[in-house]
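Subject: PucR family transcriptional regulator

B.,
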Amino acid sequence: MLRTLSARDTVPGVIRGRSVRLLLDDGELARDEAARLMGLVLSPGTPPADAAAWIEGFVGGGAGSGLLLVHDERLLGLVDAWLTGVPAEAFTDVLPLLRRTFSEYETGVRRTLGELVRRGPGAQGGTAAAGLPGFAPGLDTARADAVLPVVRLLLGPDGGGEWMRCVRG
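Prediction pasted inline below.
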């Protein structure tokens, strides 16, 4: 049923986008196929309002929804390329819908998406660089050093030794 909904042009974009997302989340659709479908919907031939509604259905929906874009650079790139290509006269029409969609994301997700878009595709330090998705290939010592005072505060003066002894029994 979801495949049928996602393939029909007469179905509203928000429903088609949500159908594709549900199929992807359930493992019924490969990421490559989801990216292909997104690419078709975000092509210049699709009216911007319909494409924006599809995006709302695909990546909208509240908590955790934006993480898909954080961890899949290809999907984020498709959204970014489409957004930068929306004609100025249509941009003001789709802006409220996009603002509503992306404002549902947690602050950290929005910040990460902004950093990824600013860096561009495949840039060093991006989440899709090498290794596991969502992890940089190496240790970022500046960020690690920044959290050390908080870790020390949480673990206490003995470095968590007392806590570890309690946990281990």
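Residues 69 and 76 are 5 Å apart (CA to CA).

T.
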